[in-house]
Backbone:
């Protein structure tokens, strides 16, 4: 049995998870697959981390990525440092050196996929990236391989565990966004600087990767309308629940005859939907294709072991290819496919039903005024609720609308917010039926 | 771009679905994967079906499987006739002729997997079988590849759409099993002879395949305790709902330190669980592994297009291997792995909580008698309900127990059922917490 050697770059949480998984499951993998995977070298700038690696498991420890990339015994470079710099140079250099690459780097892939996959194709090597989206959820392999014969119609899901944890906490305990974020940070679920997660950018990076695979169009992160969860209040979550909805940060990609919709924003979804049951830091992805119909995948979205599981799955995939003498070559997926001119619908043109919360002085004529501005802009009301009535005080008025063009909605809200009976910025949360 | 030729044997619902999918999506597949798949030949004993095939799509139509198997241009034989005979001979003969095989045949694979995979390994060809379990759900690929580094702990799910449709119908409309079965037959969801489905055997075949992949043990269908849904009444479904449970036919495989549990039976599961939301003919599978944690896959469990999607995914997988010069070789998965001596726990030894419905004459001392027989057998009561009290009439007494050994439970029920206050066979439905 030939041993396939890997070089592991980046010994953070996931990197150490991969090290442990190969150390612990190497024998299981070779029994299952008839192929042996070994860690030939590890690289990290932190010498204490290098010291924690058992030399009996991995003979080569270095602070220089080049040393692994130029090592003739190494078949696969596993990049787990994240971010663009120096990950991009490391991956490109590895590919040019004929190494296969496994990475979990969503920021890099979503931003520079073309350069990376072109380089891989030129050098006839494989780039696997299952762990870049959805942690342990096998969504990349499913879209690339299992659903290959499908015209994908819709991909959407909860792609960020941190924000889902915060929204779940707010929903179950009635806490504010800031309180829930603190809890997430205490538990290590949110980072000290949580910007990438709570702004929705992390979800947008992942959606870009899924859209590349699903729709074969040349997407960049800028093509995705992105809105985070910082403005969601426990009040809105409570109101949504009254109407049978949960509030989730959804990443949504829909292919329609009018173009592709790409958006990340807080969303009201019916509590009866499977996605609504996804709690805490879990992730879930819904895919609709012309053959498979509706498909739903749920799992751990992050964390040492779940992410390591996907990385090792990717490593073994390449190792099995090498062992069956195809030298790990894979077809240049998407480099040919994702060349289509993109026809991405402008957010302003998309029709979506909305939840609106107006903070108004409760006096006669307010609801009539709001309704008439909505009507002027072609927005139909589905339900209204104004529970407490204390003449002269500020009260919330909740309106659920039917689908309306985003541009019209913005115009209407701007006009309403300029009225003197409106005392706070109107909250708008889109609804997904 | 090299064209990979397939020979399609069996032009039933799924076979025609595969024909359509390749005809309609061939161009999409070649753009995605850089590999071209063509139907070189089709085989069916029904000449009318052969006539419905467009000669421009497929040049060779035959009633002889051998003609396709011996055709030098054909790379992959797709077997979609189902059953053991003649499917087994066709597959073995194709493998011996150096053809790769794609099949959806769960009865054959679960019964004869060793012979088939040994023959494939000897001839260095691949057998793919994603469509054999869970229709469009990519569970085979996920267990084999994505989760390869995991020690799988639990696999369970709704693996049969017909029975799930019947139970959903009974639950939503309060109809009897017989009525719900008739509806399923009218809609083409149940076959005229529904025995394989309603007896749980179809689920057991699928569970055997998943257990082979997940646990690497030498399992045969006989190792799986199997109980169908014909005895479930709408009354039990209603009672379960009162306690917050749904009734589902679950296929369950659990690896414990005391051995492997393998069982298919109607099961009460908490309505808050994702599996409980799986309605109609849909399927869903839950997998727990040491790295991935909890993972859940949902999708269409059967039907022309969803099944064809998985079959074509399998075809393209082999085609891509051939195109990258590994000649479609794959590692002899499971032939090495699934050699372990099986340590399958006897059903009698397994501890499971139960729902019990006793039909008793309502007279003093009955509950005391039932409770004391349960206590004698070491069975603890979690809840009791006896709603209507009409002295002397037959009333249902419902008891939910804590986990108790199946053997003790059977002994207790046998003793209780022999009492003269018991007027009908006691209903026992196991609970999965």
Residues:
């Amino acid at each position: 049995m030939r041993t396939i050697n890997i070089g592991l770059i980046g010994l953070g949480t996931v990197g150490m998870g991969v090290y442990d998984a190969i150390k612990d499951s190497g024998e299981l993998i070779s029994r299952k697959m008839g192929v042996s995977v070994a860690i030939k070298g590890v690289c990290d700038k932190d010498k204490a981390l290098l010291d924690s690696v058992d030399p009996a498991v991995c003979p080569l420890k270095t602070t220089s990525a080049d040393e692994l990339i130029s090592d003739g015994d190494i078949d696969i470079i596993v990049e787990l440092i994240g971010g663009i710099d120096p990950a991009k140079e490391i991956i490109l250099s590895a590919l040019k050196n004929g190494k296969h690459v496994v990475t979990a780097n969503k920021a890099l892939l979503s931003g520079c996929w073309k350069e990376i996959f072109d380089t891989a194709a030129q050098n006839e090597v494989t780039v696997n990236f299952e762990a870049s989206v959805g942690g342990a959820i096998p969504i990349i392999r499913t879209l690339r391989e299992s659903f290959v014969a499908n015209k994908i119609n819709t991909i959407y899901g909860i792609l960020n565990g941190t924000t889902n944890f915060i929204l779940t906490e707010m929903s179950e305990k009635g806490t504010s966004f800031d309180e829930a974020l603190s809890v997430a940070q205490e538990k290590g679920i949110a980072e000290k600087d949580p910007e990438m997660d709570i702004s929705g950018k992390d979800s947008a990076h992942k959606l870009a990767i899924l859209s590349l695979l699903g729709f074969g169009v040349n997407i960049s992160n800028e093509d995705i309308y992105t809105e985070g969860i910082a403005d969601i209040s426990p009040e809105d979550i409570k109101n949504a629940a009254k109407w049978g909805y949960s509030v989730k940060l959804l990443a949504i990609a829909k292919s329609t005859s009018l173009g592709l919709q790409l958006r990340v924003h807080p969303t009201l979804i019916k509590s009866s939907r499977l996605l609504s049951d996804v709690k805490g830091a879990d992730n879930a992805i819904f895919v609709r294709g012309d053959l498979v119909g509706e498909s739903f995948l749920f799992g751990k979205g992050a964390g040492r072991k779940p992410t390591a599981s996907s990385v090792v799955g990717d490593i073994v995939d390449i190792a099995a290819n090498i062992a069956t003498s195809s030298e790990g070559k894979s077809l240049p997926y998407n480099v040919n496919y994702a060349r289509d001119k993109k026809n991405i619908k402008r957010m302003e043109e998309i029709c979506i039903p909305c939840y609106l919360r107006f903070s108004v002085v409760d006096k006669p004529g307010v609801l009539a005024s709001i309704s008439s501005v909505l009507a002027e802009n072609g927005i139909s009301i589905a339900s209204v609720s104004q529970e407490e009535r204390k003449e002269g005080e500020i009260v919330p008025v909740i309106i659920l609308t039917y689908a309306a063009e985003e541009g019209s909605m913005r115009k209407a809200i701007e006009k309403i917010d300029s009225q003197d009976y409106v005392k706070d910025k109107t909250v708008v949360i889109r609804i997904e039926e």
Chain B has 14 helices and 18 strands. The mean pLDDT of chain B is 93. Residues 3-135+303-337 of chain B form a domain with the Rossmann fold fold (CATH 3.40.50.720).
